[in-house]
From TrEMBL:
Name of the featured protein: Hemerythrin-like domain-containing protein
Domain Hemerythrin-like as annotated: residue spans: 23-169
Organism name: Diacronema lutheri (Unicellular marine alga)
Listed InterPro entries: Hemerythrin-like
Pfam families linked: Hemerythrin (PF01814)
Length: 201
């Protein structure tokens, strides 16, 4: 969860907190995966700077790949729920309070997706560069691991800010829904997906 601890305590005390809990906990899990991705990226960069190409290749890059794959998979499921159910419902039922948030969050999802694509491309290049058949120089390896480290750190900052904005915009609406509105949300059908793009979000 990206919101302050004081805000989370206030929300948890709300009698209808169960309506937002799962969504907020998903944000927490995604942020934990992002933190793990940053830690793995830092470790790969440290190993490269120490001249330990074997460790980069055999330990750090596989761990980075596993973490990035897990993040992309979970983020895709979460963003699909938001883009195709939660945000359309809030937009329809709370147009005044939700305002242009749906479009803003969609733009942010696209930007985050572009950063994830950059990370995936960078990791593929790093895996190629670190392969035993490549005569990668230490400087070349350090340049790529440093870029990976910087990109993962930027992604973590952007995702934390994005989640904080979503939580600020959505949680009070979720907690304030009447029982009838909550039932309407449960019955709300997902809207069709947008036309296919490169985006995974």
């Amino acid at each position: 969860m990206a919101s302050s601890e004081a805000q989370l305590v206030r929300w948890r005390a709300h009698p209808r907190y169960a309506r937002a809990r799962s969504w907020l906990e998903t944000h927490g899990r995604l942020l934990a995966l992002l933190r793990a991705l940053c830690d793995r990226s830092d470790a790969a960069d440290g190993a490269a700077r120490a001249g330990d190409a074997r460790r980069v290749r055999e330990e750090e890059l596989p761990a980075l790949r596993d973490t990035l794959d897990a993040l992309e998979l979970q983020l895709d499921a979460h963003s699909t729920l938001e883009d195709r159910k939660l945000f359309p419902f809030l937009h329809t039922h709370f147009r005044g309070a939700f305002g242009g948030a749906r479009e803003q969050f969609a733009r942010e999802h696209e930007a985050l997706d572009a950063t994830l694509a950059t990370l995936a491309d960078g990791l593929a290049e790093l895996e190629r560069l670190a392969a035993p058949s490549e005569a990668a120089t230490r400087n070349a390896l350090c340049e790529r691991t440093g870029a990976m480290r910087d990109t993962t750190a930027a992604l973590e900052r952007a995702m934390r800010a994005h989640f904080a904005a979503e939580e600020k915009q959505c949680v009070e609406l979720m907690l304030g829904m009447s029982d009838a509105q909550n039932d309407a949300y449960a019955a709300f059908r997902m809207v069709p997906p947008p036309p296919p793009t490169r985006s995974k979000l």
